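Lab meeting, item 3. Inverse folding demo.
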């Protein structure tokens, strides 16, 4: 196969994606660099970490995750810091090199060692088919969506680590503090951070959400300042230019850290034709609700009169009132380029109510379900003849919980296991590959010295299993499976995972037993799984009940995706085939929730993993092993 090579010279520079100048991470001087590769080619990316020693996250190092790639047979290049590799430290380089056996479609790459993605280390990644394109359209474009903070990721995560105290929940008083809403939404890396103020006057429905005086900002944090064209001459609004009569494939990517977006083109419907790279039955919608980590390929037909139309990306998260929206212009060639649209700005709340109605309607086209009609180049889970879902062999019920640790830190947890950190002496995959029994041992087994039974990083001193409480204050029962943050799978297992987002989620509310009658979930969670695409069987509200709810599973033509939303006070059921030896993370793609521990791992027959590449980055720490000579990678 041919090799597609990129050099990534990673540095820090000044950027003003939304007109506010700040330090951003750049690749070869570019912000949000886009890359492409043809299916079947070897992708080779040499990452030179040239971050300056003054960069706040310099000691964390960097890594790259190929979001949505299954990495089958390429388990060492998945890019999660300390899971498959140690981070690439400043002044060193590392080459990712693997064959791209992935479905042609829309993906993105991003840093995954710490929070470097939030500072700009992220960009589109397109996989082109080796032969002709299956979809029909005239032109294509990327719509790379992100939220943007004016503060560095380090500064934002610092208060998330402080002890939680309901009375001191502010930055000023030194307590736990939430990151608040982003300062802007960018479209193709451009936006205006004061846009809501500029537009508030023209649209009363948007005005209350964008009002600087009613904006909730934690004490000590600055409010959104109105954009000034005088002091920010270089910044611009994104214009998406089309020619009348043509059909466009728009590759939408939500690469943000908090904002669940509803994206609308005024006066134009769009048709969803792919979700997370895999094709879907065409679904025509007025607005596309796209959560963090998700991608939609949509077709837009430029069939309206030549003119300028608003393009809006409005934040729809349940609890994020006060979020600014992002605005661009859909401009027909020949329209007056100096004019803004005169039509009203699209209103997603009234046009497309935010509900799981739309996502639950996304299904697989029937040609993908039959081996005889399967389009050439379709990537299937190993051993499958088509994309028809097999029957499950294992079920895991995951409750999203939010424990308070004995040391006062607030954490997100899955089934009450707050995972915060991993061993820093070797990639977890390397440890498990040599001794999968590591995971089976009990908590008191200290034969491995500093490595705990489930590799839950007790060596870092902040990993705990904490009982949670139900609404009435009684202790939560033990969960049915996976009391640890690792689930050991055997290659070939077919696993149903049901993620439940209910009242155990206090999310900043009162978590104490018996206190806080209204402890319902306050937010949805955009989950993503590494190493696999999975079938999305069903979304539901309320408490998942196996007897009644499993009959609602779509086991005929469910969407085949790598990202899914767990709606507020609801549940989502997915099914995946554990065909990929390695250690794979399932986590919330809200960066701040991931930081707080909202993740777990699946270890699939790790003993079948390949030996690590000799040039895998060196790990910073050392530790003791008693299962034979060990050289940390
Ligand atoms: Cu895009 Cu682990 O994430």
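The presenter then showed the designed sequence:
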């Amino acid at each position: 196969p041919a090799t597609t090579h990129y050099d990534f010279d990673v540095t820090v520079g000044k950027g003003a994606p939304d007109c506010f100048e700040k330090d951003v991470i750049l690749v070869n001087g570019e912000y949000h660099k886009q890359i492409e590769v043809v299916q079947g080619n070897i992708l080779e990316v040499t990452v030179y970490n040239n971050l300056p020693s003054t960069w706040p996250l310099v000691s964390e190092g960097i890594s790259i995750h190929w979001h949505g790639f299954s990495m089958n047979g390429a388990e060492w290049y998945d890019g999660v810091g300390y899971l498959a590799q140690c981070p690439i430290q400043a002044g060193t380089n590392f080459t990712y090199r693997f064959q791209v056996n992935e479905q042609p479609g829309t993906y993105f790459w991003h840093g995954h060692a710490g929070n470097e993605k939030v500072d700009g280390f992220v960009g589109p990644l397109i996989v082109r088919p080796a032969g002709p394109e299956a979809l029909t359209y005239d032109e294509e474009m990327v719509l790379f969506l992100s939220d943007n903070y004016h503060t560095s990721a380090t500064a934002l995560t610092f208060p998330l680590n402080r002890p939680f105290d309901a009375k001191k929940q502010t930055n000023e008083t030194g307590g736990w503090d939430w990151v608040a809403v982003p300062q802007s939404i960018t479209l193709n890396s451009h936006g205006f951070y004061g846009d809501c103020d500029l537009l508030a006057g023209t649209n009363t429905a948007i005005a209350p959400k964008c009002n600087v005086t009613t904006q909730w900002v934690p004490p000590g944090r600055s409010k959104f300042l109105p954009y000034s064209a005088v002091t920010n001459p270089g910044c611009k609004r994104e214009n998406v230019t089309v020619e009348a009569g043509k059909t466009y494939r728009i590759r939408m990517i939500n690469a943000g850290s908090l904002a669940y977006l509803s994206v609308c083109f005024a006066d134009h419907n769009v048709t969803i034709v792919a979700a997370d790279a895999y094709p879907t039955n065409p679904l025509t919608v007025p607005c596309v609700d796209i959560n963090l980590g998700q991608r939609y390929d949509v077709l837009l037909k430029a069939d309206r009169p030549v003119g300028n139309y608003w393009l809006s990306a409005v934040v729809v998260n349940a609890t994020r009132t006060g979020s600014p929206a992002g605005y661009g212009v859909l401009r027909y060639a020949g329209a007056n380029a100096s004019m803004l649209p005169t039509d009203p700005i699209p209103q997603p709340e009234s046009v497309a109510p935010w509900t799981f109605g739309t996502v639950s309607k996304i299904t697989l086209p029937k040609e993908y379900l039959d081996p005889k009609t399967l389009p050439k180049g379709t990537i299937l889970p190993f051993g499958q003849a088509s994309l028809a879902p097999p029957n499950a062999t294992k079920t895991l019920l995951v409750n999203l919980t939010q424990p308070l640790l004995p040391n006062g830190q607030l954490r997100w947890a899955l089934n009450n296991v707050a995972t915060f950190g991993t061993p820093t002496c070797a990639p977890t995959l390397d440890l498990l590959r040599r001794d999968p029994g590591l995971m089976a041992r009990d908590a008191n087994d200290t034969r491995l010295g500093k490595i705990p039974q489930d590799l839950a990083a007790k060596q870092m001193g902040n990993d705990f299993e904490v009982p949670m409480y139900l609404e009435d204050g009684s202790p939560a029962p033990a969960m049915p499976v996976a009391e640890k943050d690792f689930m050991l799978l055997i290659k070939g297992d077919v696993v149903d995972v049901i993620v439940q987002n209910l009242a155990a989620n206090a999310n900043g509310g009162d978590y104490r037993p018996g206190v806080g009658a209204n402890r319902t979930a306050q937010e949805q969670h955009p989950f993503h799984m590494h190493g696999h695409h999975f079938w999305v069987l069903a979304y539901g509200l309320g408490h998942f009940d196996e007897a009644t709810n499993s009959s609602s599973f779509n086991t005929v033509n469910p969407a085949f995706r790598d990202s899914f939303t767990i709606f507020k006070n609801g549940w989502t059921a997915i099914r995946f085939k554990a065909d990929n030896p390695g250690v794979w993370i399932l986590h919330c793609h809200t960066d701040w929730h991931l930081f707080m521990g909202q993740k777990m791992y699946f270890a699939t027959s790790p003993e079948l993993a390949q030996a690590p590449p000799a040039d895998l980055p060196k790990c910073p720490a050392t530790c003791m092993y008693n299962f034979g000579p060990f050289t940390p990678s």
